[in-house]
Input
Amino acid sequence: MIFGENMRTYQKKSSFSKEAVFPELIRSDFPLGMNLSRIKRGEPVSDTILRKTLILLNFYCFFAVLFAKNDTSDLFCAIESDFLDFVHETNDLLCSSGLPALYVRNPYDWLFLHCANHPYPLEELRSAMRRYYFDQADEKSTSLSTL
Output
């Protein structure tokens, strides 16, 4: 589960990417089920979908492997060199795929760079997803209760 345990209770009334209060550049072509299935089946997808999917999957794999290797403690804390390694590895992957490197001013890229620079990157990504989604849900319920 990439986005955290609260996503298990998410009522699928509409897609997560449409519900989340992210800038449009993050929400558009967010790598969710339908797009991942298209990639898996070898169907054509846009470069944007492919790029966002590579960033998401590389982020998760990179930090999950670091977490799994850290068997000295229950707590995993990324260090600055982990961040730099993630950036270099992701840029190498993107460039070798003919896609643009990470760009901090791109909101989607910034989300993953921010999380990768956090001491607990996987938890920070989960928290960011929860915050944005559940803040939106709170705003909707508040606006409905005032009607």
About this structure: The CA atoms of residues 25 and 93 lie 21 Å apart. Helices lie at 16-19, 24-27, 33-40, 47-69, 80-96, 107-116, 121-145. The longest helix spans residues 121-145. Residues 13-145 form one domain.
